[in-house]
Amino acid sequence: MKIAVLGAGIAGITAAYELNRDGHEVTVIERESEPASFTSYANAGLFAPAHAYAWSSPAAPKILLKSLWRNDQALRFKPSADPAFWRWMWLFWRQCTAERAAINTRRKARLCNYSQSVFHETLARAPVRYDGNTGGLLYFYRNPAAFEAAAAKSRILQEEGCEIRTLDRDGAAQADPALAPVKDRIAGALYAPNDESGDCRLFARNMAGWLKEQGVSFRFGTTVSALRTDGDRVSAVQTDKGEIAADGAVLCLGVYTPQLARQIGLNLPVYPVKGYSITAPVSGRNNPPSIGGVDEENLVAYAPYGDRVRATATAEFSGFDRSHKPSDFAHMLKIMRELFPSGADWGACEYWAGLRPMTPEGTPILGPTHLRNLWLNTGLGHMGWTMSHATARITADLIAGRRPQIPLEGLTAAA
Length: 415
Ligand SMILES: Cc1cc2nc3c(=O)[nH]c(=O)nc-3n(C[C@H](O)[C@H](O)[C@H](O)COP(=O)(O)OP(=O)(O)OC[C@H]3O[C@@H](n4cnc5c(N)ncnc54)[C@H](O)[C@@H]3O)c2cc1C
Prior knowledge:
The protein is of the alpha/beta class. The protein has eleven helices and 20 strands. The strands form four sheets. Strands 4, 5, 6, 7, 14, 15, 16, 17 and 18 form a nine-stranded mixed sheet that branches. A six-stranded mixed sheet has the order 9-2-1-13-20-19, with helices on one face. A three-stranded antiparallel sheet has the order 10-11-12, with no helix packed on it. Helix 1 (about 10-20) packs parallel to helix 8, helix 1 (about 10-20) packs parallel to helix 11 (about 385-400) and helix 4 (about 100-125) packs across helix 11 (about 385-400). The longest helix has 28 residues, at about 100-125. It starts with a strand and ends in a 15-residue tail after the last helix. The structure holds flavin-adenine dinucleotide. Flavin-adenine dinucleotide binds near residues 29 and 224.
């Protein structure tokens, strides 16, 4: 089939890979000039099944309310007049029970673990460079009570197959010797030896290059404006550069998916949640982290990639605005300087802000729509790098009429 993949973020690129592998004639349509130029550009790069907790939880509403009057660096919440925002918040609030949090966490963990197996299968067939690090990830705590609570909470992920070891501060410093000088600030850590990290943008761009060699077409600088339908089918994708005929289409437009979906009567609860990142160069003089991790109480995630270190932080509800100012990075920069004072050249950071395509559940929206040849691969939220390999494989399976390897309950628009 001639399939149009709309969007060349990590969701679109991995979908293109799977569809090409199945023998389809694939065209990827993207408004930017290169793949992974939007949300997939500078995320933390943690490939983290052992961190697949749902954001919605019994504690979440109180945390959100508190952020209204506290100048919180981790969570910022500005109420907006946008009806889509209130609808999303209402749906999120309904997911904030202990029962829903457990269901959503288990679904995410299953998807993440499956994604990791697909990812390594992909790398064996298409060995693209992505500055990966398979040494595990370290989730560390400064407060003993918080550490104890986190160790208890991690049981749910262990039950879903994630290996998680409890380490004291010496163990944490052994897992990453770059933390040894500050180990006294660490109460304990959860170490996930099978979690990993890698540069999502580098992977997407190198994969796009590999796919071009396999015959996939890319239409960059091309904005999708509508879908032409013929009865219960999509017949073409309308763009600012003319129509592109297709036998089928996959929507991978991240935070912009609802805009296009609305035109065909689909109301998808995907809303932007902004985050910030810094990327600092590493030279021979530096002592960067050897593996990625999260400073849990400060909610700063970081990972080393070859000659650079990246750190990310903040979940901010402020619509589609991607602007940033120096103060947005002050907290994460302070934490990174404290943890890894000579870890990188912190004075030479690249600053970035991106929009996570979040669903209230934290699980993506996949699968068929009311149009027989239109599929969804969207809402990958705060774990799109980790989940995209699974969501792409599931998309290809559904298009081919194969039964996906994991249950899709709660992961489709129909659910
Ligand atoms: C600060 C931060 C840290 C993160 N850290 C992690 C992490 O450590 N691990 C992890 O797994 N995930 C992480 N994520 C999440 C991850 O980055 C996202 O889930 C993922 O990038 C989403 O990919 P996507 O392809 O769905 O969306 P995008 O990357 O946004 O791709 C959508 C594409 O569609 C294009 N597009 C939109 N509208 C149109 C149109 N009309 N016509 C043509 N093209 C269009 C856009 O230009 C874009 O390229 C993080 C995100 C942020 C913001």
